[in-house]
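Hey Z.,

So I finally got round to the iron/sulfur cluster thing we talked about over coffee. Here's the setup:
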Amino acid sequence: MFKRHESKDISGCAVVGIMNEKGKTMRGDVITNAIAVMHERSNGLGGGFAAYGIYPEFKDYYAFHIMFEDEGVKDEVETFLQDNMVLVKSEAIPVRKKMSLMNTPILWRYFLEVPKSKIPSGFSEEDFVVSVVMRINIRFNGAFVFSSGKNMGIFKGLGYPEDVSRFFRLEEYEGYLWTAHGRFPTNTPGWWGGAHPFGLLDWAVVHNGEISSYGINKRYLEMFGYECTLMTDTEVIVYMLDLLLRKHNLPQDIALTALAPPFWKEIDEMDKNKKEAMTALRMVYGSALLNGPFSIIISSSNSMIGMTDRIMLRPMVVARKQDTVYMSSEESAIREVCQDPDEVWSPQGGEPVYARLEEKA
Amino acid sequence: MRMIPPEFIVKIDDTCIKCKRCVNECSFGALKFENDRVVADHEKCVACHRCTAFCPTYAIKVEKFPMSFKDNALWGQDILKGLWKQAESGAKILTGAGNDKPYPIFWDRMVLDACQVTNPSIDPLREPMELRTYIGKKPDKLEFWQDKKGDIKLTTVMEPQIKLETPIIFAGMSYGAVSLNVQLILAKAARELGTIMNTGEGGLPQELADYKDNIVVQCASGRFGVDLSYLNSCAAVEIKIGQGAKPGIGGHLPGEKVTEEISRTRRIPSGTDAISPAPHHDIYSIEDLRQLIYALKEATRYKKPIGVKIAAVHNVAAIASGVVRAGADILTIDGFRGGTGASPQVIRDHVGIPIELALARVDEQLRKEGIRHMASIIASGGIRQSADVLKAIALGADAVAIGTAALISMGCHLCQKCHTGLCAWGIATQKPELVKRLKVEEGVRRLVNMIKAWNLEIKEILGALGVNSIESLRGSRERLRGVDLDEVYLDVLGIKPAGR
Ligand code: SF4
Ligand code: SF4
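And the result:
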């Protein structure tokens, strides 16, 4: 029933992100109303949300949202989790039981801690969590980790985004950063894990487009031990960010530039330092370039970043109203939840737009 | 009695106006003017088509000698003729150009992808399409330093790189195997196109000194012409271990071909045989190769990439890994279809493996070991057209090298008589009267045109693939599919079958 994709996943989509830079929370129905406006951009075969700040009472623990095909695999995964991490709390993710969405799996959440003794030397705590997530996704057929960050969670499933939101009762959650995704897949695997956002640690990505360089992006990641099992572009983007930002420790600007770098003719015109940096970046990270149409919203606990491909083949509109930043495939979605924004603009192709959480004094 | 029938028959019809051009052009002595007419010695005709290219009335035609053998799937005509030749001469059969046997051509069993609906193709006439490629060792990651203003500076020290404006370079062809005019054409075209040529193992003729930024010099087992100034008059140095057309054997330029000029560039006495031993006599293992690589790096003060060229043989992936670990910055793999100025036919036609398979395995192996960034891969040996370039890049090559295709642009008709030194097109010859037939400016124009045409075709396909720079196709085997290939070959090539 829960078949993973065997060939490349292809889809068109709608994306929205809303963030309050002061950390003021909003309920999940705000983003739901925004994404619902773009109903036409989805076809009921996938919708999902990433929410930050929703588990304040468990904010120091890794929150794993996991889907299971049956009780058997759930038991196996739970044993595995107990062997590797400390289980603080485990519960069903609350849903509207009366709503019936296609192929609904068992949906569970766990709050976990990493015992220092388990971390192999030379590994960071985050490396360890990533390896646990990878092992669950690859080893346990019928289990899939939706999200694995702290004080955040991903809710997704098969249905229009507004239905998925109602199913997960998102109006009951309060978060300062929300992103949402509605899918229009052209091949229909009917698998909940295939819906977006896709996340790893506290990174979540929603993405509209198809990356034509998928093949080499995937092979490049495999060189560094990432296993791309989902055949989706979004998975590749998340791992790429993890590689560039966390493993290679590149400055955020540089990492994002590697995904959508300037053209050579622009680089040739740059001043010496910049030219040297950009030339090296393209030489070394050529396989990280995401080529083809995309607009993405990348979120983490402290930022939301919107970006399109270098020639902006997919739309992205950004708006700001006081401390709240909106990013969307279409302006209509922003206007639905914010009638008179202070400013509205379309970013340049390949140029990231940031919203950042203000440091609390 | 004549045991061996001629390969071709030359027919001259009555539209001949007796201008004698064909007689003057035939460098193989197949045509004579006798009793007021052109007379052909069919046995000497090699089908180089020089005569037909010059005949003003199309009076002269070269046809296959119409002699039917009793059908025999085992004893082909080629085999019979070879045996008769050997029965007469008692010698191994020499030949030129590349392996012409009907082995499968994997390029023709792979097809490329294109975008439809879900992702847009890109119009190369309207959007930038980037072919720029840097060849050399890359670090596995970069480090930056950000100052207080937020300006970013690269702190990783980069190894030397060669900048190419097209992923096509010219393969090593030595002065001696080819004429000086060929090398001049390659050097001038390389400069104009923003790419590089390779001198082969015959040293660097003075006439090429001006083009040093577009030249790769070779250090082969004969060490011809190698000294400090040679090593520093180039963009890169290549250690030639092997050649696709003759893996495992050396070379032999007979004394009569060692003219004054060749003796000067090779630094050997004129008239003596120029022998390239089969192995480098100072390289009997991978550690020895490492020493030579580092000796050359020292000699060039670590300012130039050092390449290693190997022939594609059975264990090519493991050998390649060793070469890269030994410190090579560029690894050239030459497939068994690569050309040669002269090679024993038995080696040319029966030793080595196809470049497609070798390339696929090497790229995969280096990735598995996490060392793919440590060297650029150049694929060569049987690259015929832009489609082959694209497929090679999708399999994982950083760039390709072309030899035969470049010579064809200059007029080569693939008669495979390079070893005779009588090339009617002025290419594989040192005879001044033949060499001057190859006009340098015209040759440059033709070669530049051909590569520009390939560049346009490559951009067209990249656009159809929906990517706007070549690195997004490089190693992207997802964009290739196999047709008419069994599972084992699909697996070796690392591609899916068409339809999946
Ligand atoms: S070139 Fe043609 S026309 Fe002239 S002599 Fe030869 S066959 Fe006759
Ligand atoms: S280079 Fe000359 S001799 Fe060699 S195959 Fe080409 S035309 Fe014939």
